[in-house]
Design brief:
This protein has 11 helices and 9 strands. It is α/β, with parallel strands linked by helices and about 280 residues long. Helix 10 packs antiparallel against helix 11. The protein starts with a strand and ends with a strand.
């Protein structure tokens, strides 16, 4: 595996692969890799001949400076994992390499970016669109892989790709990877205390029960109240939001009949750690 730090060298390596007729896959990450990331990498390696994994903590998508400061950084361990998996290139640029000048672009991401994470983290999705569009320009991949834990983010990236003309890139959504106890794998999980980590799987348990409640005919508004009450009644948890939305538009629905692909999206605070999850109904 080659560790590359510059855009020029990255473009050269990718072009070499394309000259051989290779199908190129991209897995964008912010590092602190776990088995959730590696499930994306494994799928990319199965479906593509040449795989690039980027490791870059993107400052423009953090609306909270403390979150950027405390975001875990484990580049050496990450590269070891990727090399063992058989990745072709780990792209590990500096901030100056990705943003040689300030990126002032404002994307018209529309309604998919205005609710939930978009409402709670102003500017976050514009920053995501900035960095992913740059990576798409640098790599020009045939396929790009994203995890469904960030369900809304995938809708935003699809919108950005439409706006920017990345029609030839297949954006592949990959299922959430969970720990044995159900907690969605996240780089932020390492910041949980032992006590918090023991309680955190309740998020998925409550969501899974809500699917059973929906199948039993519970009205949507009652189900939302029940989930909120159960999260807030769990020691150490504070609900930021729980929305049931259409899986394509990300817009909240009022009745089950309003969508053929309803998804429940949740964000929970445990101390100063913000955990997100979702479930399909």
């Amino acid at each position: 595996m080659e560790i590359i730090n510059t855009t020029a060298r990255l473009k050269s390596a990718v072009q070499g692969a394309k000259d051989h007729g290779d199908l190129v896959g991209l897995v964008p990450t912010m590092g602190a890799l776990h088995q959730g990331h590696m499930s994306l990498v494994e799928r990319a390696l199965k479906e593509c001949d040449f795989v690039v994994v980027s490791i870059f903590v993107n400052p423009t998508q953090f609306n909270n400076p403390d979150d950027l400061r405390t975001y875990p950084r484990t580049v050496e361990a990450d590269c070891d994992l990727l090399a063992k998996a058989g990745v072709n290139v780990a792209f590990v640029p500096t901030v100056e390499e990705v943003y040689p000048t300030p990126d002032t672009r404002q994307f018209d991401l529309g309604p998919v970016a205005e609710v939930m994470e978009g409402a709670m983290r102003p500017g976050h999705f514009n920053g995501v669109a900035q960095v992913v569009s740059k990576l798409f320009d640098m790599v020009e991949p045939d396929k790009a892989y994203f995890g469904e834990k960030d369900y809304q983010q995938i809708a935003v990236i699809r919108r950005m790709a439409q706006l920017e003309g990345f029609d030839d890139i297949d954006i592949v959504a990959c299922p959430i990877k969970r720990a044995d106890d159900g907690l969605a794998l996240s780089s932020r999980n390492v910041r949980l205390t032992a006590e918090q980590r023991a309680v955190a799987p309740a998020i998925h348990r409550i969501l899974a029960q809500s699917v059973e409640d929906a199948r039993a005919g519970m009205p949507l508004h009652e189900l939302k109240l029940k989930v909120a009450d159960e999260i807030n009644a769990t020691e150490g948890m504070k609900l930021e939001y729980f929305e049931i939305v259409d899986g394509d538009t990300m817009q909240p629905i009022a009745r089950w009949a309003d969508s053929t692909r309803p998804v429940g999206c949740i964000t929970v605070w445990m101390g100063d750690v913000r955990l997100i999850d979702n479930i399909k109904y």
